[in-house]
Q: What sequence folds into this?
RNA sequence: GGGGCCGUAGGCUAGCUUGGUAGACUGCGAGGCUUGGGCCCUCGCGACCCAGGUUCAAAUCCUGGCGGCCCCA
């Protein structure tokens, strides 16, 4: 039983999310935002491991779907960056430029990539000759740089995005590219499911598409402060990039056609969402799949019985690690068990394994799950099966709790007043009937102080009237405060 | 883009209005005592964001920079 005063609290997290987030990530050694350059943070060892595990999930999904991991240069010459007119217009105010080499001015200034389409296209031009070379699917995990002028937030709005996983593909036809977009949306869904992150998929409105895309599909989730956070996007780029970069292929009939490209990305915002959605006022709660440490074994020594307690704890520890479980043992005899409990709870270790004289006498071990702090004794002889089963239960419970959280903050309303109030109170995402015209979208943004996330993918016509112009609604629009 | 608040040991902070020895808690190190939810005691370590200015004297007042947070567009 968890004592009354120790019941899970989310007061700070809910009342002052920004502070909670920065403190928790710092104290748990996930992310240190004290680096003296605006919008730049550091991943210490423990956070780096979490990041690596998250990326590992993504890598395995991509590797198993025909992608190859590549690495393109950080520097993009101005001429390339500016080839696609709309792309450059959108990014020009947020590009960092390298203008000097030592003390001499560069002839052509070099951009720190804000994203890599313009670095990849010239190489595709060299690599693609005929239809047999298509499709090409590649990705890289790199830093990208954006000179954010608005407020920056640790991990959420940064100037160096350190964990930019960008996928790029080239196809022979519009339809192939379109199909690939659908597959990548499916791949991202799997990714978020693995991380226990709930999401809403929207087709971004025309005025908020990725610069140069013909269609942008975005994943959003809801943070504890009620704002929506974009955690992934998939873009159909059409021939908007292949034309200016002159990337053509030879078709079987002997003619040439420009390739059709797509791009899709996620960033460390995914990790921010994971932390924000699962954490509580004791610290992190990390889904077992990506937890740097899945189990911490804590011996509870008593005077006279220290020897056997430590010995048993070690046995349990090696049993766990021998099956590939990421376990550690905290044998520090200078620190009390209680203090260790708090320490590892802060770090979000999914399961704590306690071994004391009482357990030894009864032939059991005590398992405590991090999400609910529920404690139970399991037979010593069945440790491994009980443990793995518990990890599964924990993952599933975390996933459903997070989905429940999102579902409760997703509102479908029919009136502008209602929408406005929900947005103003920062209750989450609001979906309203919409006539489908861009002008009503921007009117709504003005009237509700919200941003338009977009509309459902392939939704049937919404019944009702557009809440902006009162015309018959043909679709829905999602609105929210955003980051 | 506009407005406001703020920056003190690794962390959280007191002191600033009214200029004059920077204090607590936590952490870290040593020792003792303990250990099923942050024990306690002793000793030690550790800080005024940066650059100018005012002043006999600046953490404190002024200007600028860097950095952080909040609100509004």
A:
């Amino acid at each position: 039983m968890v004592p009354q005063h120790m019941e899970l609290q989310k007061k700070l997290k809910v009342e002052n999310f920004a502070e909670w987030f920065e403190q928790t990530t710092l104290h748990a050694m996930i992310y240190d935002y004290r680096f003296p350059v605006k919008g730049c943070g550091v991943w210490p060892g423990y956070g780096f491991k979490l990041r690596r595990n998250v990326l590992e999930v993504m890598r395995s999904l991509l590797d198993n779907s025909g992608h190859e991991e590549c690495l393109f240069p950080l520097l993009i010459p101005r001429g390339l960056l500016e080839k696609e007119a709309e792309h450059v217009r959108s990014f020009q105010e947020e590009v960092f430029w390298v203008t000097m080499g030592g003390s001499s001015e560069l002839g052509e200034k070099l951009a720190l990539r804000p994203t890599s389409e313009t670095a990849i296209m010239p190489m595709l031009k060299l690599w693609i000759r005929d239809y047999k070379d298509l499709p090409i699917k590649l990705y890289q995990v790199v830093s990208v740089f954006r000179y954010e002028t608005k407020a920056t937030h640790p991990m959420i709005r940064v100037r160096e995005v350190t964990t930019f996983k960008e996928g790029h593909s080239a196809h022979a036809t519009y339809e192939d590219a379109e199909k690939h977009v659908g597959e990548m949306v499916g791949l991202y869904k799997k990714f978020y499911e693995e991380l226990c992150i709930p999401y809403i998929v929207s087709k971004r409105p025309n005025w908020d598409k990725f610069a140069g895309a013909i269609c942008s599909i975005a994943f959003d989730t809801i943070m504890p402060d009620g704002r929506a956070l974009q955690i992934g996007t998939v873009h159909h780029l059409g021939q908007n990039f292949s034309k200016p970069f002159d990337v053509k292929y030879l078709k079987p009939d002997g003619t040439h056609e420009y390739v059709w490209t797509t791009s899709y990305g996620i960033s460390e915002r995914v990790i921010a969402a994971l932390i924000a959605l699962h954490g509580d006022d004791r610290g992190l709660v990390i889904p077992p799949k990506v937890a740097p440490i899945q189990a911490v074994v804590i011996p509870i020594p008593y005077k006279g019985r220290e020897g056997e307690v430590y010995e048993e704890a070690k046995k349990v520890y090696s049993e766990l690690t021998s099956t590939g479980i990421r376990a550690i043992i905290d044998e520090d005899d200078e620190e009390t068990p209680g203090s260790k409990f708090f320490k590892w709870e802060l770090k979000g270790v999914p399961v704590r394994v306690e071994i004391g004289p009482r357990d030894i006498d009864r032939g059991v071990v005590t398992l405590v799950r991090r999400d609910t702090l529920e404690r139970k004794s399991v037979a010593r002889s069945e440790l491994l099966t009980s443990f793995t089963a518990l990890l599964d239960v924990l993952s599933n419970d975390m996933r459903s709790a997070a989905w429940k959280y999102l579902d409760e903050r997703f509102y479908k309303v029919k009136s502008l007043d209602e929408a406005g109030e929900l947005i103003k109170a920062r209750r989450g995402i609001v979906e309203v009937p919409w006539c489908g015209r861009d002008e009503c979208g921007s009117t709504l943004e003005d009237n509700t102080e919200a941003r338009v996330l977009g509309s459902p993918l392939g939704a049937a016509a919404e019944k009702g009237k557009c809440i902006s112009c009162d015309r018959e609604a043909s679709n829905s629009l999602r609105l929210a405060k955003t980051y």
Summary: Chain A has a mean pLDDT of 94.
